[in-house]
């Protein structure tokens, strides 16, 4: 908090811009959220919003909501918005938000479907996975320390607001899986194993998704209890090679869809 | 073709660079493909490769294949590669390839599952959809004229070589659907309709996928015979809003998976 801070000083502008970088997000435990849907979703969540910067047009619509919730805000011009945005096209609103400390409840491990991401590198993929988890009612995603930061501007944008509803927790994935293995079944997506279409899938479990190029890392593979694969229907081997894999968020989507379909 | 052309002149470099832009791809009916997997897949397909530029390391491995197939090539330095690449990190090989004239066989409309894309704007989404179509053995994708060009560098990269095996055809989608409606069932993905999990899906048909923000356009909607939706399993309405939709390539993936699962 910057008490009495209502105008955007040079220092404040460079502070906001610095939060594009993980180093500064970690140091200050804050991140930037942009765009109306995302900011409104965060406002209605347990996230603590430190400050909102918005174009007048947006404040006319949502100013009362901010006052009701005691969120400090400053009107800014388009020119300032262009300077502070981390996106190629700025939105009507930008929020500086505290990074929450999230811990994992053991009851969630025992009773819910959880995703575990082993070294997802692309922010767009991570954001898309958070978004689809939300759609499928998955409230917890565990990430290896090598997985891209969810508060990366591109990742958070790709969640389309779902980051407000899905807990993304970073840590030592292998250590977690060792501890979790007696509490829940550990599934993983591979290019071989049981066909996901006919596999008997429980309504709770831990589903491990691997890296874009290399899949699930060797030391995590050893902890997988059930290997699942998505069958390919590719045409007979003929012209022009063959597809080697699916995009990681696409594979995650199909796997989540299969888990959920069985609940109906 | 540039007979006798073996060195990279300034003109040739700017020609290759110009192919990043749709205007020049359309004018010259050529595009650029980068990276070993994509180029090898194209080499084995019906695409006609005009010229290959590669780092020595790549030519040592594949030079004989190029000679066998009578493909002209030039060794280039890393510096030149950096100048001609359309990507943020260049690969070992770059090919200039002719854009093929692809027409649609009526037997395909009658007997196969086809995707129809109505105004997909993001090149990454388009490439990802081509890649997953390939995985699910879908050989034809029809695109509205407003859909992003598949030969856009980002789109082609996201196909991971699948562009060599999937025909992507642009045209007037509504006019096509009017003609096709007596030959095949026209399905579309919506946020309402029949649940895709329990719907009776044929092994052939036309599946329409809409724009990232606006879904299927009004005039195309009127031509859809069966509306499908992917059920959401979101938690009870509580904190932090709710997810409005799935990413378009994720929705396409789940829909294709559902069509193919029924074939097993």
User: How many domain modules of chain A?
Assistant: 2
CATH class of the largest domain in chain A reads Alpha Beta
DSSP summary: helix tally of chain A = 11
Q: What is the averaged pLDDT score of chain A?
A: 94
The share of residues in extended strands of chain A comes to 15-25%
Total count of strands of chain A: 11
CATH topology value of the largest domain in chain A: Alpha/beta knot
CATH evolutionary superfamily of the largest domain in chain A: SPOUT methyltransferase, trefoil knot domain
Order of strands in the sheet with the most strands of chain A?
7-6-5-10-8-11-9
Share of residues in helices of chain A: 25-40%
Oligomer: homodimer
Low-confidence stretches of chain A: 1-5
Helix/strand-derived class of chain A? alpha/beta
- The CATH architecture term of the largest domain in chain A is 3-Layer(aba) Sandwich
Q: Rg of chain A, please?
A: 21 Å
Q: Encode the helix/strand succession of chain A as letters.
A: HHEHEHEHEHEHEHEHEEEHEH
Q: Sheet with the most strands of chain A?
A: 7 strands, parallel
Largest interface: A-B, 51 and 51 residues
**Spatial shape of chain A:** elongated
Give the termini distance of chain A in whole angstroms: 47 Å
